[in-house]
Write a structure and sequence with these properties.
single chain, about 160 residues, alpha+beta, Ribosomal protein L11, N-terminal domain, Arc Repressor Mutant, subunit A, two-stranded parallel ribbon
Length: about 160
């Protein structure tokens, strides 16, 4: 029966190194750390500039390993889409950016498997909730207004898979 050891890291997309935290954790197991780092960087390159959860599972006997890449947080995806550092300190008064509905739906598709939503429309409404907290407008409107418009079917053309 294989004896696995699992490690969870959070790294910047495409910028993992053999140094801490990955190297010191994996070196004692005798695996090729640089090969693992290279694969992690390849798998996370699309998330450059964002913190990405990474799980490495190593079989301590055969030295075989599996790498699983998680999805960055909704907050990280929104901030990256807007190319800003942080959300608003007072979202009701100060807005930090504006997204199109297409951008919100794109983020919802990326996050879909991590959300409790049963469909893309519900997932998009969850993302809009985060927009409210961050002081982000959508199509120049308050995200709560956009959620009501989704309920009315105004954006149904974006939810056709």
């Amino acid at each position: 029966m294989p004896q696995y050891k699992t490690f969870n890291f959070e790294i910047e997309g495409g910028k993992a190194t053999g140094g801490p935290p990955i190297g010191p954790a994996l070196n004692p197991l005798g695996v090729n750390v640089m090969e693992i780092v290279r694969k992690i960087n390849e798998m996370t390159k699309d998330f450059a500039g964002m913190r990405v959860p990474v799980t490495v599972k190593v079989d301590q006997v055969t030295k075989e390993y599996e790498i699983e890449i998680g999805v960055p947080s909704t907050a990280a995806l929104l901030l990256n889409e807007l190319k800003i550092e942080k959300g608003s300190g007072s979202p009701a008064k100060q807005k930090v950016g504006n997204l199109t509905m297409e951008q919100v739906v794109k983020i919802a598709k990326i996050k879909m498997k991590d959300l409790l939503a049963k469909n893309l429309k519900s997932a998009t409404k969850e993302i809009l909730g985060t927009c409210v907290s961050f002081g982000i407008t959508v199509e120049g409107k308050d995200p709560r207004e956009v959620q009501k418009e989704i309920d009315k079917g105004i954006y149904d053309h974006l939810f056709k898979e």
